[in-house]
Write a structure and sequence with these properties.
Helix content is 36%, strand content 18%. It has a five-stranded parallel β-sheet, covered by helices on one side. It has a three-stranded mixed β-sheet with strand order 1-2-3. The protein has 334 residues and is α/β, with parallel strands linked by helices. Strand 2, helix 7 and strand 3 form a beta-alpha-beta unit.
Length: 334
């Protein structure tokens, strides 16, 4: 949709200043979340104010979602992870000749990432409709099932512009340990993860929170699960963002894949917690250009330093993939 973006509108209306908008855009880049959602979550504007602004500037009256029922076959056209992260919802489908037109509700119709992504995934022409962010959240939960907010789990990357400094978080300061390149530190206060880039950090170094992050394109991923149905679910959830996806039954087989492919993400679901699996993960982690490793299951992997993120299992495959993609797409900016 041509014209000004939501960010430009918020600046022009003096709802946000340039510094705040840039901080939100940085967060949007690292998290994949929609700007309207981030603005509302930060308490910078009410959902109705954003929808009123967009409605006036785009000449789009907000859609009344409340009493609408989304047919399951229409909802399935857009993967849940994409709908929740980019704040869109398919609400109807019409056909005219050889053309299919998907009616797509969006809290930000100017989002130049979300709209093209839905067009690519569905192969449909789009009729983009404006919807209030709060109403969209309720309808997403009603359509796909009640779940956590897109970022209710700890954000995977933080910066001083988005969170209080370490000096204001004594518990975080107390838990800072020397970190190797690319390691995560879990902090209980504030429920977030700190990302550390190249080099080591000594205890109490507040600079660890000053790393700025950006996203990088993911080319290849490998999903490992003994259950073929789970592998298929993971592949479906990943396919909108990763062009090449391999499926394997065991971690050992990943070494064969890596002999011919450079993997960006390795997602392992409920693996056996045996010595051979641990050894193989260590070997994968030591390889040049090792993939980001995410393991869902087996508590023994809490001590596995090559694992970048550990998730509970069983869990919603789409949510597991969402968080795995966040880890895999984060790089430390210069």
């Amino acid at each position: 949709m041509g014209g000004a973006s939501l960010g430009q509108m918020l600046l022009e209306e003096r709802i946000l200043d340039a510094t705040t908008l840039q901080a939100l855009r940085d967060q949007q880049e690292s998290s994949g979340l929609g700007l309207a959602y981030l603005v509302v979550r930060a308490g910078l504007a009410e959902p109705t104010r954003i929808s009123a602004l967009l409605g006036t500037r785009l000449a789009l009256p907000p859609l009344a979602l409340g009493r609408m029922t989304i047919p399951p076959d229409v909802a399935r056209l857009v993967p849940e992870v994409l709908a929740r992260m980019r704040r869109v919802l398919p609400v109807g489908l019409t056909s005219s000749g050889n053309r299919s037109v998907l009616r797509l509700a969006a809290s930000d119709p100017t989002d130049d990432v979300a709209i093209p992504a839905v067009r690519r995934v569905t192969g449909c022409d789009l009729d983009v409709l404006l919807v209030d962010e709060a109403a969209l959240t309720r309808k997403l939960d009603e359509t796909y099932g009640q779940t956590a907010a897109p970022d209710e789990d700890p954000p995977l990357v933080v910066g001083t512009a988005l969170l209080p400094t370490v000096e204001n978080l004594p518990d975080v300061r107390a838990r800072l340990e020397p970190l190797g390149p690319g390691e995560f530190l879990t902090a209980s206060t504030g429920e977030f993860l700190l990302w550390h880039g190249a080099g080591d950090t000594t205890r109490g170094d507040a600079g660890v929170t000053q790393q700025v992050t950006s996203s990088t394109t993911l080319h290849t991923a490998c999903v490992v699960a003994s259950d073929a149905r789970i592998r298929a679910q993971l592949r479906e959830a990943l396919r909108t963002q990763v062009p090449r996806i391999f499926e394997e039954r065991s971690v050992d087989s990943v070494l064969d894949v890596m002999a011919g492919e450079a993997l960006d993400l390795l997602l392992v679901v409920d693996p056996p917690a045996d010595a051979q699996t641990l050894k193989t993960l260590d070997e994968i982690g030591r390889r040049p250009r090792a993939p980001r490793v995410v393991v869902a299951g087996a508590e023994v992997f809490q001590q596995q330093r090559t694992v970048r993120l550990r998730l509970a299992w069983p869990a919603d495959p789409a949510d597991v993939c969402r968080r795995a993609l966040q880890v895999a797409s984060v790089v430390t900016a210069s």
